[in-house]
Amino acid sequence: MAQDSGNPAPQGQAPGGGMGRGQGGGRGWGGFMNGRGIIGTVTEVAADHFTIKNELGEIYTVHFGVNTRIMKQPPQRMAQGGMRIPPQEIKPAEIMVGDVIMAGGEVDAAAKSVGAMSVIKVDPARAREMREMQANFGKTWLMGKVTAVNETKVTLQSPVDNTAHTFVADENTSFRKRREPVTLADVQVGENVRVEGAVKEGVFVASSVTVVGPPAAGGPAPREGPPPQ
Question: How much is the CA Rg of the chain, to the nearest whole Å?
Fold first, then answer.
């Protein structure tokens, strides 16, 4: 497998945590919060909660109170001197139906609710970018936790759509781990990866794979089949 010897871009990180794009661009909706919150479009505004619809079409209630930090994300073009401007405090009334928000806090998947510690109103340009990224998920990029490695075929479980996906590596695939060039043999089950590539003849072929998280506690699970050459 090819090794990429260039300097990697910093790993993206969403305001509420979670994996971002390895090249600093937009992120898929599900990958933003990585289990620590939810993202969606506001469908209802009330005195103590917002109702939102996520990318899967699920309706969640975002509860907020006096201790919830409510902010808005400034446009990227407002960066000063190369530094990004942090989210700015706003009032709940400044969030309206149709806005995209990120709610960080405890998610109750059964009750479809979030006890929000923070709510961030996403800049409209970034919201459009997120929707475009979501539309391209599985076509030009993948993200998730590696569940199996079988020769050059890798299976991962993605938080973007809560579904298993597979990709294959070839002689042109580059790999990175902790900003260092590696090979497929260094990718372990349990690690989180970001994959760029394209679908060819019904198979997702990776052009680059970046390890963006450590394996789960207890060490990696054994690989399937012989180690890749």
Answer: 19
Q: Pinpoint the residues of the chain covered by CATH 2.40.50.320.
A: 137-213
- The dotted CATH code for 137-213 is 2.40.50.320
Q: 């969403």: which residue's tokens?
A: 14
Least Cα distance to 126 among 219, 206, 20, 8 occurs for: 20
Give this prediction's pTM: 0.56
- pLDDT tens digit string along 51-103? 999 877 889 999 999 999 999 988 765 555 556 778 889 999 999 999 999 99
- What is the CATH T-level fold of the domain 29-132, as seen in this structure? OB fold (Dihydrolipoamide Acetyltransferase, E2P) (2.40.50)
